[in-house]
DNA sequence: GGCGCTAATAAATACCATTCATCATCGTCG
DNA sequence: CGACGATGATGAATGGTATTTATTAGCGCC
């Protein structure tokens, strides 16, 4: 059937990298706004200025597109954090820095964080994926900090570094779920202080005389960390104020 | 038009409660085996001995069916745990008990736990749902333990009970994700000990070393040095944050 | 300036949750 | 004891959406 030979199809050829980045930018928008399930390929295609089918030339399916989008975000984030971290000294400060930057990332990109937690990490092929490796590197900094702290005699030698990692990242995630669902807000600096202190000192009242000194020092340390943050020495408000 | 009046439709009438429990049992099976997305209503209907449409007489949609299934499981679990808990004494033992039973539930029903974490909790209407209330009650036992421990002088008074809750449940979840994806196994008892100890004592080398005062002073000096280094900077904003 | 190669398109397909028109069964009442 | 109305149950239709496919258009090469 010859419906319209008069109507010429509009075709706009572009270099593949450009197409790919257009599609990924559009996909990021839509995934962020709608979440994975409610994101429509049609919508993504529309915003990228292509037709549905074209997306499948570059991405095997909707899920691969999601993974690529989150990967891209995560890589960018890692780059931003890495250099600053190198300057921080002392186990308390290092833990606090890691907690603070992680909280800040969640606070800045709740929707992407959610996609990572809810859609990516539970997938059966997560282990073995590039994102798994990226995340491993990301959380491993904390493992190294704990090991170094033990070696330096600052931390209890019987602490399992991997367990500390799960304690810290798990705590952060659990505590931010309400925010990730869109309920209320939180202050990354304040929460970072609280978490770091709790992990560092634990719950138990030590056998030492419950020195008032203890809490004075802790408060002093907290104050110092805040000062440092304000001065931009350690935990700066990373990428929002930085060129990428 | 009557296509085959010779073929009489087989109809099997049952009391609603029976139908509902049949459907829920079938749904539980299928959700557990396939996960939410890959579970087919057709499959559930088949196993329940009804036709697709019948499911919609009792459940508004697939998601409501999921919620009901998980609710049922959770309620059962709560009942089982509650009585035993009443007998445990001492904050370490109580925390250990809660950690252990939670780990055991995850170990026994990984698929249902996953559905709870991945499908139910992130939903925008989670807060306000019955499961939210159930879970609140479930985790609140730990909050009460911490409060009681503080009151009894066993735990540090500046610990935030809610933060401890997030620390513990977050840690458990983070540490069990690999298992929930089907990778490897874990020993609930062993993990419960490790988590409880870490939370209880914290990371920092506390009183053990020769002189407690020594390390307090050392930390004070470190903190002071940092303060001096950062001197001249305006204090951080509002932040009433203190070590809690 | 034609020719093939491949990007890009638009329509077709497949798969499912959900809805709907219709039928079968049961308790009740004449 | 037999019609009858209410309602449980059915299976086919609907609608939405990811994915595939057949076809067309633009670019570079000779």
Tell me what the structure shows.
The structure is a homodimer of 244-residue chains. Chain A is built from ten helices and no strands. Chain A is elongated, with a radius of gyration of 23 Å. With 244 residues, chain A is mainly alpha-helical. The termini of chain A are far apart. The model of chain A is unreliable at 1-6, 206-211 and 234-244 (pLDDT under 50). Chain A has two domains: 14-59, Homeodomain-like (Arc Repressor Mutant, subunit A); 66-241, Tetracycline Repressor, domain 2, CATH 1.10.357. Chain A has helices at 16-38, 41-48, 52-58, 62-85, 91-108, 110-120, 130-151, 161-180, 188-201, 212-231. The longest helix of chain A has 24 residues, at 62-85. At the A-B interface, α6, α8, α9 and α10 of A face α6, α8, α9 and α10 of B. Chain A binds a DNA duplex (30 and 30 nucleotides) through α3.
Specify the CATH architecture of the largest domain in chain A.
Orthogonal Bundle
Computed structural class of chain A: mainly alpha
How many domain units of chain A? 2
Oligomer: homodimer
Q: Bin the helical content of chain A.
A: 55-70%
Mean pLDDT of chain A: 84
Largest interface: A-B, 75 and 73 residues
Tell me the name of the CATH class of the largest domain in chain A: Mainly Alpha
Distance between the termini of chain A: 53 Å
General shape of chain A: elongated
| Whole-angstrom Rg of chain A | 23 Å
Instruction: Please name the CATH topology of the largest domain in chain A.
Output: Tetracycline Repressor, domain 2
- What profile does the largest beta sheet of chain A have? none
- DSSP helix count of chain A? 10
Reading the helices and strands of chain A in chain order gives: HHHHHHHHHH
Low-confidence stretches of chain A: 1-6, 206-211, 234-244
Question: Percent of residues of chain A in beta strands?
Answer: under 5%
Tell me the name of the CATH homologous superfamily of the largest domain in chain A.
Tetracycline Repressor, domain 2
- Total strands of chain A: the figure is 0
């Amino acid at each position: 059937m010859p419906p319209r030979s008069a109507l010429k199809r509009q075709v706009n050829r572009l270099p593949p990298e450009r197409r790919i980045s257009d599609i990924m930018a559009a996909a990021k928008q839509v995934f962020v706004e709608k979440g994975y399930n409610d994101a429509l390929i049609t919508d993504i295609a529309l915003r990228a200025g292509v037709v549905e089918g074209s997306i499948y030339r570059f991405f095997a399916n909707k899920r691969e597109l999601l993974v690529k989008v989150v990967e891209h975000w995560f890589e960018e984030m890692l780059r931003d954090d890495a250099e600053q971290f190198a300057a921080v000294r002392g186990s308390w400060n290092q833990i606090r820095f890691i907690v603070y930057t992680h909280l800040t990332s969640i606070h800045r990109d709740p929707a992407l964080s959610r996609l990572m937690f809810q859609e990516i990490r539970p997938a059966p092929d997560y282990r073995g994926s590039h994102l798994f490796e990226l995340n491993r590197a990301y959380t491993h900094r904390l493992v190294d900090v704990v090991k170094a702290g033990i070696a330096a005699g600052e931390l209890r030698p019987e602490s399992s570094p991997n367990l500390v990692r799960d304690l810290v990242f798990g705590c952060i995630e659990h505590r931010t779920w309400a925010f990730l669902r869109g309920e209320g807000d939180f202050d990354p600096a304040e929460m970072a202080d609280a978490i770091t202190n709790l992990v560092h000192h634990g719950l138990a009242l030590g056998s030492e005389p419950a020195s008032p000194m203890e809490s004075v020092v802790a408060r002093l340390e907290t104050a110092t960390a805040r000062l440092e943050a304000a001065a931009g020495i350690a935990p700066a408000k990373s990428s929002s104020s930085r060129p990428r």
